[in-house]
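To: structure subgroup
Subject: Chain for Friday's discussion

All,

I'm putting the inputs and outputs inline so they're searchable in the archive.
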Amino acid sequence: MSNKFGIAIHGGAGTILRSTMTPQLQEQYEQGLNNALNAGYSILEAGGSALDAVEAAVASLEDFPLFNAGKGAVFSNTGQHEMDAAIMNGKTLEAGAVCGISHVKNPVHVARAVMEHSGHVMLAGKGAEDFAKSQGMAMEDEDYFFTEQRYQQWQQAMKDDVVQLDHTDKKFGTVGAVALDQHGDLAASTSTGGLTNKKFGRIGDSPVIGAGTYANNNTCAISCTGVGELFIRSVVAYDISCLIDYKGLSLKDACDLVVKDKLVKIGGEGGLIAIDKDGNIEMSFNSDGMYRACKDSEGKCEVLIYG
C-alpha cells in the first residue's frame, strides 16, 4: 500500500467575485465544500477506495442546494431538471455515465451502477431513469429539486431568451471529485444540472469520458467544470493524462498548458481539479474563481473560492 493519499473537489468555476458574495453566502459555500471534502477524505483515511471516496464526495455536493447538481440543479427550457454524471475507475479504466436524467436524487450513484451493473458506459434520458429504478435508486418528485434561486434564474433566462451558464454572472455549475487511495488507485467523478434554459436535450462535458471526467492509475484523475462544448472539443481530461503519459509532463505543467493556454486560445473558460499517481494535487482554472477544496495525508488542507 502506498502511504500518500488525497482528495480534491470542486463546485464549479466562473465569475465568482468577492465583491458579489455576502459573508453568509461564502460561509454556506465553504460549509458545503467542507462537508463533501470530509465525506470523501474519511473513506480514504480508513483505507477505503478512491472510487467510494469520489462517489461520497459528489453525492454530498449533489445534496447541497447551492451547487448546480442534484438538489440545486438548474431548470431546462421545459422547466425540467436534466442532470448528467460520470464516474471512472483509474485501476480498470471502467466508467459509467448518465445524461439527461430526471427525478433521481443522486445521479452519481446511477453512474456508478451503470459502470458496475449495466454492461454499458453511458445511458440517457428515460432509459437511464428506468435503469436507476431497476437498481433501487432513490427517486424524487420535481419539487425536491426546486430552489427559488434557480427558478428565478430560469424565469429571467426565458424572458431574455438566452441559455445561461448557471448564474446571470456566468458561473459554470458542476461538481466533481478526484482521489488517490492508500492502494495507489485513482478515481474521478463529475455531476451537473447543465445550463439554465438549455434546449433540445443538450449535454455538456461532465458525463463524457475523456472530456469532463477521466482517471487512469498510470497518470492522473481529472474532473472539469466550464464551457462544456469547448471542453468536449478539446478532450480536456484525456489531454492532460496524455501530456503526462506521452510527453512526461508534471501534473502542474500539463494542467497549466491545457487550462491556461490551449483552452484560452479557443475561448474555453473554466477549470478542473486533478490528482496524479504520486498524490500531487492541482486545482487549475482560467476564470475569476472556482469553488474548490483539497486534503491529503501529508497535512495539506485548503478550501478556496476566489482566484
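Points worth raising on Friday:
Residues 6-306 form a domain with the Glutamine Phosphoribosylpyrophosphate, subunit 1, domain 1 fold (CATH 3.60.20.30).
The chain has a mean pLDDT of 93.

D.
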